[in-house]
Amino acid sequence: MTRQTTEILKKVRRRSSEAAKKRTIPLERGGSSESAAEARWKRALILIGVSLVLALLVTPGYLGLPARYELGDVVDRDIKASKDFLVTDEAATARKREEAARKSLAVYDLDEEAVQKLKERLAPAFETMRTMMQTPLETAGNEQDGASGNIEAEYKSPLEAIPQAKKQFEALLGISVSSKDFAALVKAQFDGRVQQEVVRLAEAVLSSGVVGNKSLVLSQVQKGILLRSVQTGTESHITDPTRFLSLEEAKQQIRLRATMLLDNEPRALRDAVVHLTLKMLQPNITFNRSETELRRQQAIEAVKPVLFQVKKGEMIVREGQRLGEEELLKLKMQAQGKVEWAAIFTTIGVALLGCLIIWVSVYVGDRYIRQFPQKSKDLLFLAVIVCLFLGIGKISMGVAEALSSAFPLVSREAIFYLLPLASGAMLVTIFFNPATGMLFAFVQSLLVTLVLEKQLSLLFFYLIGSLVAIHGVEQCRDRSTPLKAGLTVSLANAVVIIILTMVNEQMFSVRTGVALVFGVTGGLLSGVTTTGLLPLVEMIFGYTTDVRLLELASMDQPLLRQLMVQAPGSYHHSLIVGNMVEAAAKSIGANSLLARVAAYYHDIGKINKPAYFVENQRANENRHERLAPSMSSLILISHVKEGVELAKKHRLGQAIEDIIQQHHGTSVISYFYQKALEQHDKTRNTRSAETSSVLVEDYRYPGPKPQTKEAGLVMLADAVEAASRTLAEPTTARLQGLVQKIINKIFSDGQLDECELTLKDLHQIAKNFNQILSGIFHQRIEYPEAAAKGAEGKVRKDGDQGSRPAARDQNGSREDQGKSKEDLRRLGMS
Questions:
Q1: Which residues lie closer than 8 Å to 428 by C-beta, 6 or more apart?
Q2: pLDDT digits (tens, 9 = 90+) for 678-708
Q3: pLDDT mean over 614-643
Q4: Whole-angstrom Cα distance, residue 473 to residue 468?
Q5: Residue 133's beta-bridge partner residues?
Q6: pTM for the complete prediction?
Q7: CA dihedral 284, 286, 290, 293 (to 10 degrees)
Q8: Angstrom distances, CA of residue 623 to CA of 188, 381, 673
Q9: For burial by CB atoms within 10 Å, which of 237, 704, 725, 731 has the most?
Q10: Exposed e or buried b for every residue in 304-319, given b needs 16+ CB within 10 A?
């Protein structure tokens, strides 16, 4: 391979390593990949959010007590005014506003230029007609009289000869004129006196005022109307609108006046003047509806509310008194008066109280609970569950009021017994651990009790039910476990209800029986709710429950079947590793189911290139012999990344993805690293100036190191099982020595620094590994001592660093005999 190719491979490997390190920042306890500052901010936001939700749900319960009363309710205590306040008399205010609306005057518009507009229409029409009449038109023949020699001409009016004259006259006036009236006007030659008479007749009636609808005006006789000039905008209050003329009355007066004023004129001309005046007459007083409505609305808005004062200490309502409209109004006004500062201080106080409770609980859990959730995602899940049940509790208050009013035998407390609050504790226990579930149950019960008006008996009821539920789902290995736990909670609820009845010195009655039914139903609802929410929470938050792990452990899973077909050696190796970690996990208190299932899937990344891993190679077939060590290391390291991608694609869950990513930690692929060093030593003698050094980081897995006990177990079992295949004579003693050597090496390399495995745990792990491996190799026969010694040091050249117990370490030096004197050499020896 050329020097240029080698340099390219190193650059690719270095970039891949840097990208992997960026993706896998060293994790805190609990597996969080976020920075400390980011985690603190997220925690603060979650804390503030839950506190605000609590404050918003609890505050109305403190401030809204008077407002909950309704008309006709009987109060259970004396209520006095806490301070002086004013009460709005809604009925009196409404009466005053109605009165103001009635007194509001109707607005009529007066057109003071109606006569002038009439003149402007008449003048051009008459002037045009007169002009046309003054133009003679010859209509007779011009025959010559032979005796006298004179020409006799005959002239007629042009209006009689032009048929369009009448239409032009009508167009100028904007009215229709009868032929008889037009002929009379023509005969009078459209004299200016005729025009003046028309104006005088119209002006006589318009000066008195003409309205279109007099009946509407007469309806305002009692209060009068407001007459407003269209031209000047001046207004006047008309107290006697009866003096205005209707259009019919105005026409009748025009006829009478025309008889008196035009008595000397020809009848035809008088009729023409009257008809012309009547047709051109229009009302000069009109009703303005929009302005009237506007004035009416302004009058209503100008009315101030009618108030009466309630003095501090004044009795508003006495115990046992039925609430009337006035008492209810006083209660509402007193509550509104408190909202200014009381609501602010109460809301802040409740928020601070909730913040303190939650902060102390998280601090105690983080300090004293070994497996308390640390990720922001986990805290968000806890916050969502708390807010969900707080909201359900708030809704139940309204339901309780309605049902208790409709059904007297159902008490308000009975509705609260129906809440499936134990479901929250079940979910937390299933996804985390019982200790976290108990702390959550206490906090949730306390906060929900605050929402439900601080009923202390409910705190005991919810807390005891939640603790029983936690015990029921401690080992949740199937979907029916929450339902069984819900049945147990039902029995516990019934017992608590009976005890609370005795504590409150109440007699057993029908209402007690109804409460028992609701309590038992609430327990069953808790189991049903948990069963329904489990898949939803798994999908949203990416959690993996034991039920899901059991489903993944089935050999019918497509991914395992693909591994079995394409990489049978890796599949068999994974099964043995699964058996080893399951036995070891039980002995050290780790999650044995998670460890076993993760072991099944830890090498699924080998599906893509199975032939490059020794367990899948045929005899005398090693593809790495034709590759450079750097390329071989890239192929081996890639199976971790590809395994994580397959796990995401098949939705195996975050827990299994983490173990796949961490099962090699940051260990070095020592075989190919040593091979690269050897090749470098050979080339350095010939081309020392042109050959770059071999970096150990180029042969190191990107990590991170195992973060949990289960991940550490998979790392140990993976390395031990692979190394056990290299023993030519796997006797019990040699298997024990191999297990000790591999565990010591991984421990000394610092790969277990972050997974909380103790020396005691390592001793138990080694002991269980010895038992499993001895069972696997128990049929091997014992070879002669010399042959065994010779075979013990043989190492097969495979591509997995876990099968190189005798290879060089990351510094390049061979493991010397001094390793047998390390402090951990007796791991697993009883």
A1: 382, 385, 436, 437, 440, 441
A2: 887 777 655 444 445 778 888 899 989 999 9
A3: 85
A4: 9
A5: none
A6: 0.57
A7: 130
A8: 131, 48, 17
A9: 704
A10: eebeeebeeeeebbee
